Amino acid sequence: MFCLRSWLSILLLINAAPVYVALFIAGTFALRKPCVYCSILLCVLIFTILDFSGDWFEARWQPTVETVSETLSSLVSGNATIRDAALETASAAVSVINGTSGALASAAVEGVRRRIGGGNASLGTTWSAFEWLRGVTDKVSLRIPCVDVTLRFQLVKIMADRDVLSGDVKPSNYAISLFDLQAGEPWTYQGKCSIDLEVKNSTKSITLNTHELKIHSVEVFSEAGKTASSVKASKTEYDTKNQRCTFSFDQPLPESPKAVLTIAFEGTMNNHMAGFYRSAYKPTVEASKGVAKDGESHYMFSTQFESSDARRAFPCFDEPNLKATFDFEIEIPDDLVALSNMPESETKKSKDGHKVVSFERTPLMSTYLLAWAFGDFEYIEEFTRRKYNGKNLPVRVYTTRGLKEQGRLALESAHQVVDYFSEIFRIDYPLPKIDLLAVHSFSHGAMENWGLITYRTTAVLFDEYASDQKYRNRVVYVVAHELAHQWFGNLVTMDWWNELWLNEGFATWVGWYAVDHLHPDWDVWGQFVTEGMQMAFQLDSLRTSHPIEVPVRNALEVDQIFDHISYLKGSSVIRMLASYLGTDTFLQGVSDYLKAHTYGNATTNDLWSALSKASGQDVATFMDPWIKKIGFPVVTIAEEPGQISVKQTRFLSSGDVKPEEDETVWWIPLNIKTGPDATDAQRNPLTTKEDTYCDIDTSFYKPNANQTGFYRTNLPPQRLIELSKSLDKLSVQDKIGLVGDAKSMAVSGLGTTAAVLSFMEGFASETNYLVWSEVLSSLGIARQIFASDPQVAEGLRNFTLKLVTAATDKVGWEFSQQDDYLTGQSRALLLSTAGLMGHEGVVKEAQRRFQAFVDGDKKAIHPSLRSAVFKISVKNGGEAAYRAVQKEYFTTEAVDGKEITLHSMGQVQSPDLAKDYLTFGFSGKVAIQDIHSVGVSLANNSKVRDTLWEYLKENWPMLREMLGGNMVVLERAMRMCLMHFASFEVLEDVENFFKDKDTTGYDRGLAVATDTIRSNAQYKERDLELVREWLSAHGYMK
Ligand SMILES: [Zn+2]
Question: Which residues are annotated as a binding site for Zn(2+)?
């Protein structure tokens, strides 16, 4: 136990102002017998909430963890348990007091303020704060002894930060029945939802979540003691803004372990890709009679509930830790197929030509994981090789009629991955079946609904003969990612949305881990470093980034954090941790964590505890800065004979980090590859701002071996040149890392573009696709930024062309049976780059093949070269080629055909054609889910980038209306279109344009875009002349 008097002594010892001491004494008195947590919170409140000014209240002493530790050690010396607990507690408190725990702490305090309904404190509000805190701590089951101090303390803090439904009632089962579905305008359906509840506190009202639902009637049946009663709600009030609905009753509902809330309601099968929604498609074979039709369009229906759209389909307590079981039934036309999380339990005839399909009860799970779908479906089936409860599990891929064969690749991967995850997590897949469904309209890539995973078509369908090979990689990965969630996310769910990253970061890492297991020849970790990590770095080097773990006050705020920080930085730090602990140890910890929280909810701290136990290391301590602090470090290296000195600072792409933004000390696994065979890796992590590493063979060394650490390295310029001479000692991941780091040093001003270009010249004979991919995308960024200067742009074009020519000529046009996946990808990338940079031979051949293709010879272009050939043809072929690709957009039968043609059309070279393309993009002929591709392809093209921005401004109301039905779509489109600009004028224009607009729902994306433009513009100003000089001195410019 921890004595309260110690706190008082601390306050006295640190010379706290008398007012603080007085308040503390008053507070402890008011709280009667406060526990240790209350007393900590009391200190925090006194120091942080009360906004005093004046001498009396001036803090006389700035506590630091060290000084408080010292004081505490002397107080409690001799008892190790108490000392440790006290130190932990004190550091938590001190970090809050000092305001260094950043967003989380201040938001928590903000949360407290809002709860007590006031800003500046008076005694009255302070009193209510204490009352409220006492209430909260009462509800939390405090576990003594003190080992849990930090954890519990955080629990209290986080609860203060959530705007959640009242805890008066708790759902345990939902019985949902949907009927009278209208297969046409107004696309409504009727529903009945009966929710089994425990009424924990007698109440006169029940509030739950609804969105765009019409409530017809509400009734509660409850059993309290021996009496059973039924009451109808006397009033229903909608809170549209908060997506809640309150049912009031004339009599209080008695406390009861068993009550049933029955709601009759009406909903809409919308076309916003959220809730229960419809997807239009054109069937490729004759459709069943019962399918919904509207002119040429046929419809299928499915759900998308994450993060907070279950409430759009049925009334529910829509929070991830309010887990319940679900019974679901739906009335559909006789000849269609209905699916849900669980297997069908029975089918009954209903009204004319209709049937009611019911499903088995689900396990305990969160509302966002419920799913159903129906339509003109068919399927292919496989079985797992392992046995589950004595049986091989059926795994199916469902599609609308005519497409099922394209599900083979996904099916083949899925059943193997289910077995693989069951083995590495040491927990069997828990449901009796797994279905994968291709959905024609889909806002994200896929959704992990338990037992019924939904995908956009390009993430699950693949045609061996007609698809671009790069989609093979995508399909296998997305299948694995969603399957990983069946354990990590579904079986064990994050307690609240602020820990979304844990779900997504882990599924991303383990998804790639499974792909690596199935396809070791794809070198997916190289791919991860060039695609995933670089993207995460890019976003996280902006001032407007956010810590991985962000406060999410209510579920409505969560959509915007489904971003690269949650997925890609999240998975990058998981990869760093897994590689440091060793993958086997890491997976052992993950398995323990899953087993300990099965069918429940857990937090990041729970995972760290399990990993600490498995590894014998204090995982939380070294991971916390990575999770809770914004940004990441750059490690700057200086060489001395036989040793190097290293220094970590926060990295910003604008290069102007201020001291107050650079206070974090990250735990950094330096992993320096050195020695004659480049095999020794120094594992000692860097845990201070600066340090020296001895025994480094300075004839060759490379920090961050295999790029497993999530940080950039700033090497001395001469070292970069040395390394470019020993590329053979470096792994693919090392090379990618060096290129990426050098490029971003140039962008930030810590290095120069000249150094990067010199370094890149060494890659002309490179053969690896992934290294090429990093080199060319880095060069692409330079071309984009310096595009406004025609001379420099031309010089960079010449440089790129010269760099790729030999490799392009070598790889050639023809695919052979022996080519592996990566060679095919190299071919597509090199031909595309060379052609777009003006390689005469490539342009000619591309145009020849394109003409043959247009004339009807579909074999003239290999499926994986469609993108390259279409782009080169549009760029060089004027309006005729553009129209031909547009025609292909309408007629293509390939599942990836629409995405490929959309990206190609952006190569138009005149503002008129760009406008034409935009008009086409927003004409309703391009699916909402794909419109961002139109914008991005134009944003990538410096010839017409300005036309895009003019169009966006002129047509804003239409655009807002069209994309704003689903904020995910609008946010993505705005961010991706705008972040390619590199001038202060456009920046000002963008800021002015949005100044008086309501940007709720896409403000984060907008901030990312403007911050990126600013850093691009600064980079251009700084380096333009240097680049010109270098290009001219090296003969790339006339
Ligand atoms: Zn995911």
Answer: 481, 485, 504
Q: CA torsion, points 918, 920, 926, 932, in degrees to nearest 10?
A: 0
pLDDT over threshold 90, residue 68: no
Give yes or no for a cis peptide into 520 (omega within 30° of 0).
no
Radius of gyration of the chain (CA): 30
Side chain identity at residue 974, one-letter code: M
* Residues ≥6 apart with Cβ < 8 Å to 467: 863, 894, 895, 896
The pLDDT value given to residue 165: 95
Rounded Cα–Cα distance for residues 459 and 477 (Å):
9
Mean pLDDT (whole number) for 432-445: 96
What pLDDT, on the 0 to 100 scale, is given for residue 139? 38
Place of tokens 């391009």: 926
How far apart are alpha carbons 191 and 212 in whole angstroms? 13
Q: How far apart, in whole angstroms, are the C-alpha atoms of residue 888 and residue 863?
A: 13
Distance 167 CA to ligand 1 centre (A): 29
For residue 80, what pLDDT is reported?
A: 42
> CA 822, CA 808: separation in Å to the nearest integer?
14
Q: Which residue has the tokens 């915007």?
A: 560
What tokens does 433 get? 């079946």
Q: Is 771 exposed, middle or buried (0-12, 13-18, 19+ CB in 10 A)?
A: buried
Confirm if 51 and 120 have CB atoms less than 8 A apart: yes
pLDDT of residue 973: 92
pLDDT for 82-118, tens place per residue?
444 444 454 444 444 433 333 344 444 444 444 433 3
Helices and strands (DSSP H and E) totals, the chain: 34, 32
Question: In a 3-state reduction of DSSP, which class is residue 460?
Answer: coil
* Residues written for the chain: 1038
Q: Ligand 1 centre and the CA of 490: distance in Å? A: 11
pLDDT, mean over the chain: 87
Residue range 5-58, pLDDT digits in tens = 566 666 665 556 666 677 777 766 666 556 666 666 666 666 655 544 444 444
Are the CB atoms for 648 and 570 separated by under 8 Å?
Answer: no
Q: What's the 507 CA to ligand 1 centre distance in angstroms?
A: 6
Question: What is the rounded distance in angstroms from the CA atom of residue 173 to the CA atom of residue 198?
Answer: 10
Cα dist from 213 to 55, 189, 263, 1001, whole Å: 56, 10, 11, 21
Distance CA 46, CA 20 (A): 7
- Please write the tens of the pLDDT for every residue from 338-377: 999 999 999 999 999 999 999 999 999 999 999 999 999 9
Q: Quick: pLDDT tens for 1001-1032.
A: 898 899 999 999 999 999 999 999 999 999 99
pLDDT for 45 equals: 65
CA distance 449 to 429: 14
Write out the binding residues: 481, 485, 504
Is residue 40 packed enough to be buried (19+ CB in 10 Å), middle (13-18) or exposed (0-12)? buried
Instruction: Report d(CA 34, CA 236) in Å as an integer.
Output: 40
- Catalytic residue, candidates 319, 329, 378, 482: 482
Calculate how far, in angstroms, residue 482's C-alpha sits from the geometric centre of ligand 1.
6
Residue 74 has pLDDT above 60, yes or no: no
Q: Is 499 a catalytic residue?
A: no
Write down the pLDDT at residue 128. 42
| Residue 689 clears pLDDT 60, i.e. is over it | yes
Residue 231's DSSP bridge partners are 220
CA dihedral 392, 398, 402, 407 (to 10 degrees): -70
Query: What's the CA-to-centroid distance between 279 and ligand 1, angstroms?
Result: 22
Residue 498 has pLDDT above 80, yes or no: yes
pTM of the model: 0.83
Q: What is the mean pLDDT of residues 959-980?
A: 90
Ligand 1 center to 680 CA (angstroms): 36
Sheet holding 244-253, edge to edge: 203-209, 244-253, 235-239
What separation in Å is there between the alpha carbon of 478 and the centre of ligand 1?
Answer: 9
